[in-house]
Write a structure and sequence with these properties.
425 residues; alpha/beta; nine-stranded mixed beta sheet; 12 helices; 29% helix; globular; binds pyridoxal-5'-phosphate
């Protein structure tokens, strides 16, 4: 959400919440998450068996994954703990996609044991998978079109040719043939070549490219693919001037290509999967922090009680996150500030030269679009502790879905004498 009027809470409500839960914390909107998931499924209701495997890395909190499960989503995992999240929320194997890369053998083993859909990143992973787990009945491959496909300038994934993921076209054909010989009987095809993309053409092109491949694979190898997975990457409008993708239009544009390239060629029905993470939770989470210092040197700074450890995107990518000073939504935005955290890193800034209302120590600040790759990217550098995660439920009540880390947690993995202070908070 990229405007002050998008908040799912107001100043008074947030003041009350902070009486129980001290800042900083992330807060998510159950209602928003559910409605958004429903509109995605609705846009693809023409496609039998459509699913969005939620990319767990965006917001790996089981309470959130469970809400999405209730809306029909599967989970897209790429690490062992993410597979455990999917398992704990009770997702069946066919609703778990394991799209990993550079994968250790215990992770293949876990995915295999869960009966998850294994999406192999590379042709050399075939013998590796066979050794570490076995040959699954259903196998999917990740395709990297390389120079055959250019992405829009500025996309964070860069051009496919420079991306570490997936296999080449020739390898892909070999991989299906090998797995068929080894006994797999069911097949899928995956690609993911964009991230945070706001142009829907890009997804239609991807669908079109995969549909063509499906028909070629069917011709050359006599293999009927069960599904294509278009990957994630649907962007969200972080900046006020950006617009969200029209999901309904995307659904019907892909339908037109499906009718031409799959139905039109008499191919058997093909399921369409996606694995969006960001668009599923990003707009429905805020990082709530409090101004604790005002500093006037060569520039004007507002120091807040959150840091890059709570939301890394601005510091890491220079990403824009909209900021609302709660209770001052209507005030003149006539002060230019850098909003800073306490990390000893000069890029620990949530905003640079941002025009905002006059901020005083004690003001509550909401940082928008922190529901994906926010808490999830948290870290402990500089002795920073991860903050809590709250959920505003559909009935309006607020629940703690992950407590904040304590000093005790920070020391929990060391047995240095004296670090187990008994009464450490
Ligand atoms: C990150 C990732 C996703 C989700 O991407 P979003 O931008 O969050 O939609 C999906 N699939 C794979 C393989 C990923 O690495």
């Amino acid at each position: 959400m990229n405007s002050d009027s998008d908040l799912f809470f107001d100043h008074t409500e947030m003041q009350k919440i902070t009486e129980t839960y001290p800042t900083p914390f992330h807060i998510y909107d159950e209602k928003g998450i559910r409605q958004n998931a429903r509109s995605l499924f609705n846009a693809f209701r023409w496609s039998k068996g459509f699913n969005n495997y939620f990319a767990v890395k965006a917001c790996p909190n089981p309470y959130i994954v469970k809400i999405l499960k209730e809306e029909g989503c599967g989970a897209d995992c790429s690490a062992l703990p993410e597979l455990i999240v999917a398992e704990k929320v009770g997702l069946p194997g066919y609703k778990i996609m394991f799209t990993s890369n550079d994968t250790p053998d215990i992770e293949f083993k876990k995915a295999f044991d869960l009966d998850a859909i294994i999406n192999l990143d590379d042709i050399t992973h075939i013998p590796f998978l066979e050794r570490s787990a076995g040959i699954p009945e259903l196998i999917c491959f990740r395709y990297n079109p390389g120079p055959l496909r250019k992405t829009m300038k500025g996309n964070v994934m860069g051009n496919p040719q420079d991306a570490k993921y997936g296999m080449t076209r020739e390898q892909l054909f070999d991989a299906y043939a090998i797995m068929k010989k080894k006994g797999s009987t069911r097949f899928g095809l995956h690609t993911m070549i964009v991230s945070n993309e706001l142009k829907s053409d890009s997804f239609v092109e991807t669908a079109s490219m995969l549909f063509d491949l499906v028909s070629e694979i069917s011709d050359r190898l006599r293999i009927n693919l069960e599904f294509v997975n278009l990957g994630g990457g649907i962007g969200i409008p972080y900046k006020p001037e950006q617009k969200a993708i029209d999901i309904d239009a995307l659904g019907s544009d892909i339908r037109a290509v499906y009718e031409e390239k799959i139905e039109g060629k008499g191919l058997p029905p093909l399921k369409i999967f996606m694995e969006n993470g960001r668009m599923m939770t990003g707009p429905f989470g805020y990082l709530i922090t409090r101004a604790i210092h005002e500093k006037h040197i060569y520039k004007e700074y507002i120091g807040v009680d959150a840091s890059m450890a709570n939301l890394m995107r601005p510091g890491m990518y220079g990403a824009y996150h909209h900021i609302t000073v709660l209770g001052k939504e209507k005030a003149k935005h006539d002060h230019k500030y850098d909003i800073i955290g306490s990390l000893c890193e000069n890029n620990d800034k949530f905003a640079i030269d941002r025009m905002l209302p006059k901020i005083k120590a004690g003001d509550l600040i909401a940082i928008h679009n922190a529901g994906a790759h926010g808490h999830a990217m948290g870290f402990n550098y500089n002795g920073k502790l991860r903050s809590a995660e709250l959920l505003k439920k559909e009935d309006g009540s607020v629940a703690l879905i992950r407590r904040a880390e304590t000093n005790k947690d920070y020391f929990a993995t060391m047995d240095f004498p004296g670090s187990q202070y008994k009464n450490m908070q």
